[in-house]
Structure formats: C-alpha cells, structure tokens
Amino acid sequence: MLASHPFAIGPLVSRITMKHLSTIPRPGHVSLAAGTPRRRCRSTRLRIPLILRLAWGRPAQPSSAVERARRWVPSRGPQCFGRTAMVCGCFLLFGWLARAEEPDPTHSMAGWVQQVSADLKTLDHRYRVPVDPSALEVRRNVLQSWLTRLEQRDFSTLRRDAQIDYLLLRSELAYRLHRLEQDASRDLEAVELLPYWETLGEILRHRENVDPIDAAALAGELDAVAAAAERAAADIEPPPGAGAKATAARLRGLQAAQLVGQYLRAVEEMDRFYHGYHPQYNWWCKQPVNRLRAALAEHRSKLREKLVGVPESDDQTIIGLPIGQQALQVELRHEWIVHTPAELIALARREMAWCDREMRTAAQQLGFGDDWKAALEHVKQQHVAPGDQPQLIRELAWEAIRFLQTHDLITIPPLAANGWRMTMMSPERQRVNPYFLGGDSIIVSFPTDGMTHEEKLMSMRSNNIHFSRATVHHELIPGHHLQYYALARFRPYRELFRTPFWMEGWALYWEMFLWDLDFARGPEDRIGMLFWRKHRCARIIFSLSYHLGEMSPQECVDYLIENVGHEPSAAAAEVRRSVMGGYSPLYQAAYMLGGLQLRRLHAEIVLSGTMTNRQFHDTVLRQHSIPIEPLRLYLSDVPLSPDMGPSWRFADE
Questions:
Q1: What span, in angstroms and rounded, lies between the C-alpha atoms of 561 and 570?
Q2: Per-residue pLDDT for 352 more than 90?
Q3: Concatenated DSSP letters for 110-156?
Q4: How far apart are CA 328 and CA 38, in angstroms?
Q5: How far, in Å, CA of 287 to CA of 219, rounded?
Q6: Domain chopping of the chain, boundaries
Q7: 430: closest CA among 460, 406, 386, 464?
Q8: Which residues contact 427 (CB under 8 A, 6 or more apart)?
Q9: What is the distance between the alpha carbons of residues 390 and 401, in angstroms, rounded to a whole number?
Q10: Residue 49 Cα to chain centre, angstroms
Q11: pLDDT digits (tens, 9 = 90+) for 219-233
C-alpha cells in the first residue's frame, strides 16, 4: 500500500529538484556562498520544514494560530502512516549521508605529487644560503622520506593514471636526490677558491634563522671576511697551458665566480634586513659591509678575468659549464630516454641528411639547382616592410587555426583561439632570442629604429615571411599557446614533471605533421619549414657535442652558419641562449627528440586505428607536460610495475 501511495519514496525523490539539493551541505563540501563563513561541513543538516513540506505538501494559509497548528497535525490512518514512514526514511537517508566521508584527497597520488611540489617550494623559500651543509641535510631528508613512503605504497591498488603518477614521482625524487649530491660535490670543489666561504655562510645562516646579533662582533667578522676575499682576489693566477687541466681549472673558476655572485646577493639581502631597523647594526657594520661588498665584487671580477679568461665586461664571448657524458646520461634517464648521447647525435645526423635532400629538391624547383643556400637566400629576402610584421603574424595565426579545424585534427576551444595577445621583443632580448617566442602571448622579433643598419637587415632576413609561417603555429596554435591553455585546465598537479620533451617536442611534432599534410603552399614555404627542421637537428648535434666536450661555443656557432644557414648574429644568439641562458642541458635537443617521440607514438596509436587524430592530440594535451615514454605507457595496455624505468628505443631505425 505504501508503494502506491502518492507520497511514497519514489515520487518524493522525483520531486526533489537540483535546486533543493544545491542548498544541502554535503560531507566535505566547502560553502562559498556570499555572506557565509568558509567552513568545512561534516554533517548534512536539513531543515525539518523542508522535509515535512516535501512529504505533506504545503498547507493553505491558515486563518488562525490554532488552525496553523491543526494543519500540521496528521490525521490517523494509512495516509498518516505512509507520510510518517516516508519522513523517517528521509531522516535515515540523510543521516547516512552525513556519516559518509569522501576519500582523503591528500592520500591520492595526485595529492602526494601536490604535497611534494609544495615541500620543494618551501625548501627553496626557506633555505637560500649558498653551499649550506645544514640545508643540504634538510633537503636530503625530505626527498628521502617521500621516496621511502612511495616505496611502501601498494602499487597494485592504484588506477592506471595514478600508477603513471607513481612512476613519475619516483623518477623525480630519485633524480633530485642524485642532483643534490652532484651539485654539492661540484660546489665543494669550487669553494676551494673561496677561503672565506664557511665563515660567511655562518654569518648568513644567523640572519636566515633570525638569531639575535652582537653588532660589534658581527662587524669584526664581516671585516675579516672582506680581508680574506681581498687576499683571494690578489692571489689568483691564470691556469698554465691549454690542456685538459687548464680547461678544468677555467670551468672551476667559472663555477666559483657564480658562487661569489650568490654570496654577494645574500650579503645585500642581509644588509637590507638589518639596515635602518637595528641601530647597533647601522653604527657598527656600515663600513665593514661596504668593504665586503667591494671585496666580493673584486674577487668575482678577478676569477672571470684571470682564471676563466673572459672579463665581466665582455658580453660577446660565450662561456658555459659542460656537464660531461655521465651527467648527460643522468639527464636523459630523468627524461625517460634510454638512448646514449652518441645514438641521439647519430639520429640527428640522419634527420639532417633527409632535410638536405628535401632542401635540394625545393632549390631545384625554384631554379637554383642543388645550391640550397642560394635558394635559402632567395627566401630570406621575402620579408614585409617595417611596421607590417604584426599584421602578417595575425594572418598566419588564423590561417593555421582554419587548417586544423578543416582537417579535424584537434579540439580548439573558442577561448583558446581568441585568448592570445601579441607583443614586440626588445632589442636586448633579440640578442638571445632572435626569433619569435610564444605562450599566452606571441612575442615578435623584428627590427627597431635603434638598431644598426646591419642588425636591422639580419633581423628582417631572419624573420621573413616563410620562416614566420613555420614559426607562428609553433608558438600559438596548435603549439605553445594551446599547450598553456591545456596545462592550466588538465592535471595541473603534474607541473612538477614539466619537461621540454613534451613542451617543445609537441610544437616540433606539429611542424613535421603539418609537413606531411602539405601545409606548405610551395617550395618557398617548404624551405622555410626545412630551415627550422634543420635547425632542430643541429641543436641536438651542437648541444650534446658541447656538453660532451667535443665542440666549443664558437664551433657551435660556425656549425649553425655553415649547416643550417643562420645569420651570424642569430647563430651566436642561439648558442648563447643554449649555453648561458639558464636552460637545462637537454633543452635544445628536446625539440627534435620530443617531436620524434610523439611522431613514433602517433604511428603506434593513430595509424593502427586505435584513435583518430583528434582523439590522440586531445589526449596528449590532457595528460599535462610529462616525459613521452610514460605518456606512451598510459596509452598502452602494457602491465605496469613500480620499478619500471625507460626502455623505449624510439630512435632505432
């Protein structure tokens, strides 16, 4: 009888609209309604009148207080029983919901990744003294504790995407532990040239710990450190000869000069902390700290001038710190690449040979025979007039978007298509980045009125119409702008694993894929696309060879001019960016290598019929920036294990 009653539980549930349910706090729900306190609700509270009205119906307006009371007193009989049972059932239902708890998000793999990221940011925020043994121990303990917790977790209970997070996190923690020890060892070698480092480090740690200071004693310590720095600067001698030992001495001198710069910045911060706030500090320490500033600056200058052989005033000579074969292998393993540097250089040379053949074909079509450099010079001359470059870039951006949409290659949300901006690159930045940069904005390189005549011509030639047509889609859509759009919306917790093999590899992959789809309009466009493809092959060759000690910076510049066709200023800027721009050792190689990995993965997934182009590309974007082999594992049905490492030989012929 209850089941057929007009107020039975089924009809009641159908009457509870989303409007009603949206007003009911749920377990773990955070209320953000205007005017209400932000607090976490741990029980589901329902107003009794809401339940009664849903069960009994809203009464007509009573004529008196007595009538109002009478209307809410149910009559006896089956109808009363049904309604009362229904109300009790609702209380039981919502009471059960009140006791239900959502899974603790901090225990998920995504939660662990977020916590590790936060811990690393806290460590970087708190510990800033160079070559600090106590900070080294804290960092080591934090990383090791997370690695231990991870190894104790039951891998088999995780979903596949969480297993990928597990593998990525384990790899990241192991890599950071290794780098921590390697960097500490390198720094300890360099500080042999800084006899004052321990005393100065202790002074800076007291400031960092906000310990009370004895200003008079501190003044004496600062003055003693300044005197030691002055003696160290005076004692520097140039390394003898030009062999391996001399090269090692120069590199150690460069590392020492960088550390002195870090100490100088830390002293400046300490002075800002006390100056004007601690009267005794001002009285005692003003002169000693000024002497220390000057002594550190002089020591850094002499290290650069006498030991490295490149004065600080020289902003043209390219200098850097090659990391060597063993460190390159560590970096490659961190990126889930099993190939050796030599194998990757051989791969780049094969790709370069293909580009040379295609370049000669395009040159022949333009009437230049096999002289691809003459054809390249012809293309470089085809640039817009000063002031017209922004309009060209806008037209090229929308041309690429329409091509992608016509061929149904990838999802392009309207906000992504319209959400980018354009800015112009300063002359100073063009010294390091002679071409475009991209992201949420495209940053356009083109001559300014303050450049020399030669600089203007080289900038226009380097950013000609056909080079630009192959660059704009790399920087905007489907390249970096669409990547940034996706990174902010899908699995943002994976930012810890961000890699140029996904970031730059994706944009380069599209250059190759659009070539296959005949995006080029003719031989000039093909030469423009091939120029960049040769450029990325050359990046693998010169950057890995440089870190292996097989090419000097100047040899890298000459290689780009001769084998790719760069303008001299652009070639120097490219190598300066690679060696001195703060990029990771594999960053320049990651363009072509990441692109080739994605190209191989596309063949496995799309050409096999497992996914369409659109499905594949959308899935890659939604996995965030991670190394390509873990992405491949996610897309496959290969059983995963907690000790898996890189094994994919994508570069094999």
A1: 9
A2: yes
A3: HHHHHHHHHHHHHHHHH--SSS-HHHHHHHHHHHHHHHHHHHTS-GG
A4: 50
A5: 8
A6: 9-102, 106-191, 194-314, 330-635
A7: 460
A8: 448, 450, 451, 455
A9: 17
A10: 53
A11: 999 999 999 999 999
